[in-house]
């Protein structure tokens, strides 16, 4: 199904990506999978002209920010721009994801069919799988019950990349938490969506290669994410786990699970991390309890 055919069926879909120091080769792969599709790109700070040029196969609508204002604000900017231009669905992508040709149209057609049956679909997403190179970790989904016969499985939240977001749902649920800046934005929004009657689903027969976290060598394939991430990412991870756990709409079971996971990750970092690697995490936890969100404080790393 072409974008024009989707539009004729009462849906108008586009893709969107937030750019921050992107790899132009990966962007070119992404653009090839979106050839001819409308793509909103939010430049989160200066982006080299070669990277922008790599998106030429798409119908590019560029939004620029002179500085890094965070992933959450970038996601809200592309969602609002798409809504203003009459799009009904937006497939959000990370800058290193490689959507196969036709995935936008397939997700949109399925989402529209479910909506016509009365389903309140906030997000319909493909399975994210590691690329063949780089030894990235496999994403773990938080499933809600058994998969349905049509290959549809409910999840607590869908990772941002590859997620087809309903503009109507976005307007009803509210914007992404831009004060989270980065890390956990999709988790909080997914739980808020369920709390307001909107569901997140995975189309288990569709797959998109996605680079989760940082790559390692083959011998380090089992290396935990907290040991792969930069200190600043660990700050945001720790802070936003605590911040999300304080929200009413986040279920108690997830609060316990995420905080226990954070404690285990801290233990690993204490045992195997480089010197002073716990400091950003400690500051993040304190800021999470204090409700100090937004960009990380200077000197945290």
TrEMBL record:
The keyword Cytoplasm does not apply. Gene3D superfamilies: Spore Coat Polysaccharide Biosynthesis Protein SpsA, Chain A. Keywords: Glycosyltransferase, Transferase. GO terms for molecular function: glycosyltransferase activity. It comes from the Bacteria. Belongs to the glycosyltransferase 2 family. This is Rhamnosyltransferase. It comes from Bosea lathyri.
